[in-house]
UniProtKB/TrEMBL annotation, chain A:
PANTHER family according to UniProt: BETA-CITRYLGLUTAMATE SYNTHASE B-RELATED, RIBOSOMAL PROTEIN S6 MODIFICATION PROTEIN
Protein name: Alpha-L-glutamate ligase-like protein
Record-annotated Alpha-L-glutamate ligase-related protein ATP-grasp domain positions: 21-293
InterPro entries in UniProt: RimK-rel_E_lig, RimK-rel_E_lig_ATP-grasp
TrEMBL record, chain B:
InterPro entries: 7TM_transglut, Papain-like_cys_pep_sf, Transglut_i_TM
Record keyword RNA-binding present: no
Protein name per Swiss-Prot or TrEMBL: UUP1 family membrane protein
Gene3D superfamilies: 3.10.620.30
7 transmembrane helices usually fused to an inactive transglutaminase domain location: 254-497
Stored SUPFAM superfamilies: Cysteine proteinases (SSF54001)
Domain Inactive transglutaminase fused to 7 transmembrane helices residues, every copy: 24-182
Keywords of the record: Membrane, Transmembrane, Transmembrane helix
Transmembrane stretches, start-end: 308-326, 338-364, 376-396, 403-421, 436-454, 466-486
Length: 319, 501
C-alpha cells in the first residue's frame, strides 16, 4: 500500500477525481449546447474577438484539401507559424514552426519539416484524425506567439502556458505549464512538462511537479521554480474570469500565454480540464469548488469575482 | 440538479425485475441455475400383448396422467398398426389393425421426469358415491365391521386409516375372513368406504425401480378429503405415496381394452436415466408450448448468434468496471469487447499471438503508408485490405504447418483491427512507443479479463437462459455511471496529495 493512498485521505484533502468531475461538475455545470464554443477553436476565437479578449492572430483557415497548397502563400514573410486542428483535443495535432528560412520550415527543436509532412499533417487534420470522434475538421493557421522574455528559462523548446480553472466565473486554481525536453516541447503534464502551481492572489509560484513528483528546478534550464512571478497576473485573472460570460460553461479550463508585445492571449478553452492542476498545486481543488458552490446572492461582475477569488483562494508556497 | 431518487427507484426496479424474472424461469420452467446439473428421469416401456384372431383388432391402453411426473417424450411403435393417442380427461393410446393373427406385441415408451408434486388435488368436489350393494351372504358381516370402525373415526381419512388397519389385522375376525375369501383387500376397502358415502376410487400405479422388467400395475385406492385425493396402499398397509410411484390410471377406467383379441396382458419394464437438467427443461417447454419468452424458439442458427450477442453485455460490464472503478485506459472504448469476442472463437493464447502478429505487421505496413501522403479514409481502407492479406497469409501458413489453431485467426474483426493499427500508429508518432505499449497492453488486459468472464460456462449459461440477468447488468451499468468515488489508479496518482497538511 506504499504507493496507494486511502480514499478517505484523498477525500479529506479535497482531491477531485475523474468520476466526480465528470458527474458533479462537468455534467452539472457545462451545458452540452455550449460545448462547441470551446471545442471548435475557430468559434472560440470569433467569440473572444467579439468579447474584446486578445487571442493569437489568425493567419488563415484551411477548410479543404486543395487549400493546403496555399499555406506557403499565407505564411509568406513570417518567421514562424502554428497549424492546429480547430476541434483538436489534448494538444493533439499542433504543428509549431518557429523558424522559416528560404521557404524551409523548422520545428522548435531544429528539425526540418518538409512540405510533404506539412501537407500530410493538414490532410490528417481535415480528415478528423485529431478531433473528438473523428469528425471532419478544419485547420487553423495562427501567428507564432513571441513569448515574453520574462519567461526565459522557465521553459524548454516551447511557450509556457497558464492554465486557470474558472468555476462559475471565479478563478479557483492556476498553474504554469513549462515544456521540457522530456515533453518534446509540449505543455502536457502527463508527457513530462513541469507543472508549477500558482497563487491565485499574486501569481507567484507555490509548488512544482514533474511526472507527479515535486521538483525545485527546471530539469533542462535549471531555473529555480520557486522564483516565478507571472507578470500581468490581474489581466490574466480578468481574461479567464470573463471567459465564463463568453462561453457560459460553469466548469472551465482557460489556457493563456504571454506575448511579448500583446500581453496575455487566450489560447484555448477547455470544457473538460484535467485534474493534474491539483498535483501541481499540491492541493485538492474540491474545497474551493464547494466554496464557490455555496455562494449565494446576485451574479457578481468580473472585477468583483476576481477580487473575491484573490481574497479567498490565496495560499502559501510549499517548496 | 434534479433529485436522484427516481433514478435509484428505476435502477432498483430493473434489478428486482431482472432477479425475479430469473427466479421465475428457474422455478416455473425448471431451468437449472448451474449448467451441467443432472436430473433423474425414468424411461418406461409398456408392452401390450394379445392373441390375434385373424379379425380386425383394437387395443386401447390407458396412458399415465400424474402431476408427480411430466411426460418428456413418448412414442408408440408397432408395425402395421394404426395409432391414435386421444387427449383429454382420459389419455389413451389406441392401436388398430384390419387383421391380427398370432401373438401380437405393441409397445408404448414414455420418458417421465419427476416434478416433486406428489399431492393430487381434486378439480372439483366428487359426488358422494351410491352405497355399495353387498351380497346377501356378506352384508351382515360387512355392516358389522363398517359400523364398528365408523364409530371409532372422525373423518374420511381416519375412517380409511382405521379400516385399513382392520383389514390388515393379523388376528382376523371371522367376519373379515368371510369377506376376504371372496374379495381382494383393496376391493373390500373401496366397497366399505363407499358404503359410508366416502368418495374413494380404485387406481392403478406402477412402482418405478431401476432395471426392472415384466412389472405389473398394482392396485391402490385414493380417498377424498378436503380437496385432495390421498393414496392408500391397502395390500401393504401403507398410507401416502412414495415418490417413485406413477399413477398410471386414476379415472376408474380400465387400463387395457382389447377388442378382437384374446389373452391380453400388459407388462412394464423401466430404466432410470440421468440427463441434463437444461435439456430436460427445454424439452418440457417445447412440449407444453410454454416457450413464452425464450430464445429456444429461434432457429438453431439464430440461437447460436444470440449466444454470442448476449455475451456482449458481460464484456461491456467488465469494461465499464475496469474503466470507472479501476481506471484502466484502453485504446478505443469497446474495442476490447470485440477482441474478447474474437478470443472466444480462437481461444486465449492463439488469440493473443494472432492479435499481436496482425497489429505488429499492420504497424509496419502503416509506417510505409504514412509516407505516401494519403487521405485518412483511403489510408484506413488500405490498412483494412492489408489486414485481410495478413490474416489470409497467416491462415495459409498455419495450415501448411499443420497448426489448426491458426485457422481461427479469421474471427478477428478486421475493421476494428485496422482502426486499432491506425490509432496506435498515430500514438507512436505523437507520444512514442511507450504509450503504444501502455495503451495496447491495457486494451489486451481488459480484453483478456472480458474474455475470461465471457468464456465462463456459468456466465454463458446464465446470459442465455435467464434473460432477466441483462436487466441486472443494465442496472449495474447505470449505477456505475453514477459512481463519483476515486478510481483505483487515482489512489496511486494522487498519492502525493494524501499527506496531512
Amino acid at each position: 500500500m506504499k504507493n496507494y493512498a486511502w480514499p478517505w485521505e484523498l477525500r479529506r484533502n479535497g482531491v477531485l477525481n475523474m468520476n466526480k468531475r465528470n458527474i458533479d461538475y462537468i455534467g452539472k455545470y457545462n451545458q452540452r449546447k455550449f460545448y462547441k464554443r470551446v471545442d471548435d477553436k475557430l468559434i472560440t476565437k470569433q467569440l473572444a474577438l467579439a468579447n474584446d479578449i486578445a487571442v493569437p492572430d489568425l493567419i488563415g483557415v484551411v477548410e479543404e484539401q486543395h487549400k493546403i497548397n496555399e499555406i506557403p502563400q499565407m505564411v509568406l514573410g513570417r518567421t514562424g507559424f502554428v497549424i492546429k486542428p480547430a476541434k483538436g483535443s489534448g494538444g493533439k495535432g499542433i504543428l509549431v514552426i518557429t523558424h522559416v528560412e528560404n521557404g524551409r520550415y523548422y520545428k522548435p527543436n531544429g528539425d526540418e519539416v518538409t512540405p510533404n509532412e506539412v501537407y500530410r499533417h493538414v490532410s490528417n487534420i481535415l480528415s478528423g484524425l485529431f478531433s473528438l470522434g473523428g469528425i471532419p475538421d478544419v485547420g487553423l493557421v495562427e501567428g507564432l506567439i513571441e513569448f515574453d522574455p520574462i519567461f526565459d528559462g522557465f521553459s524548454y523548446e516551447g511557450v509556457p502556458d497558464i492554465r486557470l480553472i474558472v468555476f462559475k466565473g471565479y478563478p479557483v486554481m492556476g498553474m504554469l505549464r513549462c515544456s521540457t525536453a522530456a515533453s518534446d516541447g509540449k505543455a502536457n503534464l502527463h508527457q513530462g512538462a513541469v507543472g508549477v502551481g500558482l497563487d491565485i492572489a499574486t501569481g507567484k509560484s507555490l509548488y512544482a511537479v514533474q511526472f507527479d513528483k515535486p521538483v525545485l528546478r527546471h530539469p533542462d534550464t535549471n531555473y529555480e521554480l520557486s522564483q516565478i512571478q507571472v507578470p500581468n497576473w490581474d489581466v490574466l485573472l480578468h481574461t479567464a474570469s470573463s471567459a465564463y460570460e463568453m462561453c457560459e460553461l460553469g466548469y472551465l479550463g482557460t489556457d493563456m500565454v504571454l506575448d511579448k508585445v500583446r500581453g496575455p492571449l487566450l489560447l484555448e478553452l477547455n470544457a473538460r480540464p484535467g485534474l493534474a492542476i491539483q498535483t501541481a498545486n499540491g492541493k485538492g481543488i474540491l474545497d474551493r469548488l464547494k466554496h464557490v458552490e455555496s455562494l449565494k446572492g446576485p451574479t457578481l461582475s468580473v472585477e468583483e469575482r476576481v477580487a473575491y477569488a484573490k481574497k479567498h483562494f490565496c495560499s502559501n508556497p510549499n517548496f | 440538479m434534479h433529485s436522484r431518487k427516481p433514478f435509484f427507484i428505476f435502477v432498483a426496479l430493473l434489478f428486482i425485475s431482472g432477479i425475479s424474472a430469473s427466479i421465475y424461469r428457474s422455478v416455473e420452467h425448471n431451468v437449472p441455475f448451474f449448467p451441467g446439473k443432472q436430473v433423474q428421469s425414468w424411461s418406461v416401456e409398456a408392452k401390450v400383448m394379445f392373441n390375434g384372431t385373424s379379425k380386425p383388432a383394437e387395443a386401447s391402453l390407458s396412458l399415465p396422467q400424474d402431476p408427480a411426473f411430466d411426460v418428456l417424450a413418448e412414442n408408440a411403435t408397432s408395425a402395421g398398426y394404426g395409432l391414435n393417442i386421444s387427449e383429454g380427461e382420459d389419455r389413451r393410446a389406441v392401436w388398430s389393425i384390419r387383421e391380427a393373427s398370432g401373438r401380437q406385441s405393441l409397445y408404448y415408451r414414455v420418458t417421465l421426469v419427476p416434478t416433486g408434486q406428489l399431492k393430487v388435488d381434486a378439480d372439483e368436489e366428487p359426488v358422494t358415491p351410491e352405497p355399495f350393494l353387498w351380497q346377501v351372504t356378506e352384508r351382515g358381516a360387512a355392516e358389522q365391521i363398517i359400523n364398528q370402525v365408523w364409530e371409532r373415526s372422525a373423518s374420511n381419512i381416519s375412517y380409511a386409516q382405521q379400516l385399513m388397519d382392520v383389514i390388515n389385522d393379523s388376528n382376523q375376525s371371522q367376519n373379515l375372513a368371510l369377506l376376504l375369501s371372496v374379495n381382494s383387500r383393496t376391493q373390500l376397502f373401496v366397497q366399505m368406504l363407499q358404503s359410508k358415502g366416502v368418495p374413494a376410487k380404485l387406481v392403478s400405479g406402477l412402482m418405478l425401480e431401476d432395471q426392472r422388467r415384466r412389472q405389473q400395475l398394482n392396485p391402490y385406492v385414493q380417498v377424498y378429503q378436503d380437496g385432495e385425493w390421498i393414496l392408500f396402499d391397502v395390500e401393504n398397509n401403507k398410507q401416502g405415496r412414495p415418490d417413485n410411484l406413477v399413477l398410471w390410471q386414476h379415472n376408474g377406467m380400465s387400463v387395457l381394452d382389447v377388442i378382437g383379441g384374446s389373452n391380453s396382458q400388459v407388462n412394464f419394464s423401466m430404466l432410470k436415466e440421468t440427463r441434463s437438467a437444461l435439456a430436460t427443461s427445454i424439452d418440457m417447454m417445447m412440449n407444453t408450448d410454454s416457450l413464452d419468452f425464450s430464445l429456444y424458439q429461434l432457429p438453431l442458427e439464430e440461437q447460436s448468434t444470440f449466444k454470442g450477442i448476449l455475451l456482449i453485455p458481460i464484456g461491456v460490464l467488465v469494461v465499464v468496471f475496469l474503466r470507472v472503478i479501476i481506471g484502466i485506459k484502453t485504446s478505443g472504448t469497446f474495442m476490447p469487447v470485440l477482441i474478447a469476442l474474437a478470443f472466444i472463437q480462437t481461444t486465449l493464447l492463439t488469440g493473443l499471438i494472432g492479435f499481436l502478429l496482425i497489429v505488429a505487421f499492420g504497424l509496419m505496413i502503416r509506417s510505409y503508408l504514412s509516407q505516401l501522403n494519403l487521405l485518412l479514409i483511403s489510408r484506413i481502407s488500405a490498412v483494412i485490405i492489408v489486414v485481410i492479406f495478413i490474416i489470409g497469409l497467416f491462415t495459409l501458413i498455419s495450415y501448411k504447418l499443420g497448426l489448426s489453431e491458426g485457422l481461427t485467426i479469421t474471427f478477428f474483426p478486421m475493421i476494428i483491427l485496422a482502426w486499432t493499427i491506425e490509432r496506435m500508429s498515430i500514438l507512436w508518432e505523437e507520444e512514442g512507443p511507450k504509450s503504444v505499449f501502455m495503451s495496447g497492453g491495457g486494451s489486451l488486459f481488459v480484453a483478456t479479463l472480458a474474455y475470461l468472464a465471457m468464456s465462463n460456462s456459468w456466465i454463458q449459461h446464465w446470459v442465455f437462459n435467464f434473460l432477466g440477468i441483462h436487466l441486472v447488468i443494465l442496472a449495474m451499468v447505470l449505477v456505475m455511471g453514477q459512481y463519483t468515488g476515486y478510481r483505483l489508479t487515482e489512489l496511486k496518482r494522487f498519492k502525493p496529495l494524501a499527506e496531512d497538511k
